[in-house]
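quick one: fe (ii) ion bound model?
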Amino acid sequence: MTSTFSICAPALMGFGASLAIGEKCAELGVKKAILVFDQGVENAGLTKGVEKSLKDAGIDYVVFKDVAADPTDVSIEAGGKVGREAKVEAVIGVGGGSVLDTAKGINVLMGNPSPLSDYFLGGKPTNPGLPIFLIPTTGGTGSECTLSCIVTDVKARRKTTIRSKNCNLSTLAIVDPELMMGLPPLLTAITGIDAFAHAAECATNNKTNPVSDALAKEAIGNLVRHLPRAVADGSDREAREKVAISAMMAGTAFANSLPHLGHCFGHSIGATLHLPHGLAVGAAIAQALCFVSDAVPEKIRAVGSAMGLDMSSAGDPISIGRKVGEAVLKFKEEIKLPALKDQKGVTREAVVSAHPLVTKDGCYPFSAKKLTEDQTKELLGKMYDGVL
Ligand SMILES: [Fe+2]
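yep, here:
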C-alpha cells in the first residue's frame, strides 16, 4: 500500500514566537492586515504582544472580533467584508479553533467571490488567498497546521468543511506557549484530549502513513507525560510547551491521515447534545480504540507503547484493546476530564439517540472496523457510563 505525506505548514515555535509577527509580515511586504480574534482572547489580553509587534514593524491592521463560537458562514462573510473594504494584504488569526477557522474562511473570501457557501460540498475555491498567519491560544485543534476550515452552514443547519491548500494552510503557523499559560485547567484538558485523539486515531485508521505515525507517536507520549502537569499547574512552562508542540504535531499527522471512530462518535454526541468538541471526542476515544483493536491490533499496541505501557503481556487483540482503553480512561482521570454523565441535562438515552449520525460521519470511511446499529448503540451507552 502506498501513502502520501504532503501537508505541512511552516511553523515558528517557542515562547515569545508570536512577537515576531510584525517582522514576518514585513518580510512578505505586507503593509496592512486583518487581525481576527474573539472576546475571550481580547479579555485575556492575548493580542497585546501581536498588536505591538505589528505597530513596531509599521504594519497597519483592522480588527475583526465578531467570531461565532462555531463559526457560521454569516459571521465569516462579515469578516470577509471587513477585509475586502480595508484592502488588507494578509490575514492573522489569534485564538482557539473557532478563531482559526474564521480566519481561514475569511482568507477564502479574500481570494474568491462570496458567498462562502459556493465552496461547501466539495466546491473548491480556485484562487489563492492572502498570506495567512495562524497563532493558536489553545493546545488542541492543531488547526494552525491543517487545510480544513470547519463552518456552520446556517441555512442547512449543519457543519461543513472547506479544504483548500492555497487559502487555509498557514503561510506561517506561530505556536507560542506563552499565549496558553493562562488557559484554565478545564479548557486545557478539553483541548488537550482532542489533540491526543487526533494522534491516536491517525495512527490506528485503515490507512498506512509512516510519517504521520511517527508524529502521532511522539505527540501521544508527550501528551500523556505533560498534559496532566499542564492541567495541575498552568504555570508549568515545560508542560505547556510540550502540549502546544504536540497539538501541532498531531494536527500535522491528521492533515495527512484522518481520524476515525473517536471523531465519528464525538461529532455525533457533540451535535446531539451541544457539547464542546474536545469533551465529546474525549468521551469516545477509549471505547473507539478498544473497539477497533481486533482489526488493527498492532497499531493499537503501538499506541499503548507510545503511552509508555509495557505491551509485552498483552497477547491477543482483545487484551491489547482493553489495556490501551483502560490506560486512556486513567489518563482522562488524571487530566480531570468531565464525564458525560456529569454534564447537566445529559442522559444515557440522549447519548444513545445520537446513533444514526455515527456511521454517516465523514471520518467513518477511515475506520478499520465497521459498526452494526446495535454495536453503535452499545458503545454510546458505554461512553455515557465511562466503561469499556
Ligand atoms: Fe478533533
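The beta strands are 11-13, 32-36, 60-64, 90-95, 132-136, 148-153, 158-163, 172-175.
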